[in-house]
Amino acid sequence: MKRIFLPFTAFAAITLALVPLGRAQGDKDNAARSGYTNFKAGKYDEAIKDFNEAIRVDPDDPANYRNRAIVYNKKGDTAKAIDSYSQAIAKKSDDIGSHLGRGSLRVTTGDYKNAIDDLTVVLEAKPHDAEARRSRAFAYAKLNQLDKAVADLEGVLKDKPGDTAALGTRADLYARQKQYDKAVADYKAVLQQKPESTDIYRDLAIAYEADKKPADALANWEQVLKRTPKDVFALNRRGAIYAAQADYPKAIADFDAALAQDPDNEQALQQRAYAYTKSGDVDKLIGQYTDALKTRPKDAELYLRRGDAYSAKEKYDLALPDYNQAVELAPNDFKAYRARAYALLKQKMPDKALADYNKVIQNKPTDEPAIKFRGYIYTMLNQSDKALADYNKAVELNPKDAGAYLNRGNLLALQSKLDEARADYTKVVELNADADTAKQAQDMLAKMKLVP
Predict the structure, then answer these.
(1) Could you tell me which of 167, 187, 209, 267 has the fewest CB atoms within 10 Å of its CB?
(2) Per-residue pLDDT at 267
């Protein structure tokens, strides 16, 4: 994703020319005049020496500290620039130029709270200073004080109603606040002035997606791809919408186009596999993976994906060799262990499946699906205490996993702990589980003569 909200690029200019370099006044200020001349000529080290001399001659004049700070900033020495601004402020607490300079630099260093303090001083003296207001809005946004950030941008827009940077940034903030109608209105206002802005069409598409308006989102992804037809992110997002609408041929075409630009793109690989599986054309997907392996025979991810495709067809005997190869090529990729464990379980090899699930859980002790399946294997192996411990942990990690409650209920029923089993079966029904899981729970309750 290129961006969620505008990165306040307009603020970058502030750090290049924070305040005009003060021209020295009077014949006595030869050092300051020389500093200005050297600065304009790009001789920054000489300029700093000049301003140091001016400070030695007149240590109480804040302008020389401020001008030296500008030179330090031009050299890229932010810490010394901030320190020099601070020295200017120590000489004159209401030195607006120094507060603006220091505040803007503090924004760039992530010192947002202190930046806000500086920029507030500026805005109290100059309430219409657009750059100070933009910078403070950025700092507020970074601190997640979005209402205050929006208020500052509204201040900018009051003085400059068509300011596209402020409109775009306010739109981003509205989107973060899930005020999508307001966000869309601001994005469209930007488009009126910049009708070819790919970024704004992208932001509109994302806002419409978040607002569950897929038709509008599609229209804007079309505009993005009209301008940047090889945009992998846009292809993936449009493909995902097509897949959600069960238009699998169009979805697959978009994912194929994304993979043509980025063959290892994880999102496109996963979503294309999903689209092929839902369309029933898994054999074509397997063929594509097989062709790819001819030129990339050491690609563990391709073996894993082809194994997943075989598993989608319930051909676990064909999936296992691919999973084995994936594990051999990438022994630290625990996705392969998880996939192989499930295939081994389906092939009635619980001991081997248990070993793989143990590896997954050792790597991630909070992996709820792996813990649940391990509990199921322990049940198969008549290790009831270990099974119950895993089911308890699975339910703790994911209280909405109906499958974990069903498995635990089955185990408790086998142990004749009927009240606890009833509670678990009832929970499955309450969770609105998928039809098969819910039916199993209802059947068990019926047998126990406690149909909800």
Answers:
(1) 267
(2) 82
C-alpha distance from residue 429 to each of 170, 289, 376, 404, 417 (Å): 45, 40, 20, 13, 19
Express each pLDDT in 355-414 by its tens digit.
999 999 999 999 999 999 999 999 999 999 999 999 999 999 999 899 999 999 999 999
Question: At residue 132, what are phi and psi to the nearest 5 degrees?
Answer: -65, -40
On whether the CB atoms of residues 34 and 56 are closer than 8 A, the answer is no
How far is Cα 112 from Cα 177, in angstroms, rounded to an integer?
20
Which residue has 């699930």 as its token pair? Answer: 357
Number of C-beta neighbours around residue 78 at 10 A:
16
Q: Which two tokens stand for residue 37?
A: 């001349």
pLDDT in tens, 75-100: 999 999 999 999 999 999 999 999 99
pLDDT in tens, 20-51: 454 444 434 788 899 999 999 999 999 999 99
- 232-244 and 214-227 helices cross at what angle (nearest 10)? 150
Q: Is 6 exposed, middle or buried (0-12, 13-18, 19+ CB in 10 A)?
A: buried
Listed residue (81, 57, 90, 73) closest to 17, CA to CA: 73
pLDDT greater at residue 210 or residue 1: 210
Tokens encoding 108: 């760039």
Measured distance CA(85)–CA(64) in Å, rounded:
10
> Contact, 336 vs 326, CB < 8 A?
yes
DSSP 263-311: TT-HHHHHHHHHHHHHHT-HHHHHHHHHHHHHH-TT-HHHHHHHHHHHH
Report residue 450's pLDDT band, with 50, 70 and 90 as the boundaries.
Answer: low
- Give the amino acid at 177: Q
d(CA 338, CA 325): 14
One CATH from 2.60.120.200, 1.10.10.10, 1.25.40.10, 3.40.50.150 for 281-364: 1.25.40.10
Burial class from Cβ neighbours inside 10 Å (0-12, 13-18, 19+) for residue 37 reads middle
Asked if residue 194 has pLDDT above 90, the reply is yes
Question: What does the domain layout of the chain look like in residue ranges?
Answer: 1-143, 281-364, 368-452
Note the CATH number of domain 368-452.
1.25.40.10
| Tokens encoding 368 | 């709820």
Provide the sign of the torsion angle of the four alpha carbons 330, 331, 335, 339, taken in this order.
Answer: positive
Q: Is 117 exposed, middle or buried (0-12, 13-18, 19+ CB in 10 A)?
A: middle
pLDDT range class, residue 136, cuts 50, 70, 90: very high
The average pLDDT across 232-243 equals 96
The domain defined by 1-143 carries CATH number 2.40.50.140: no
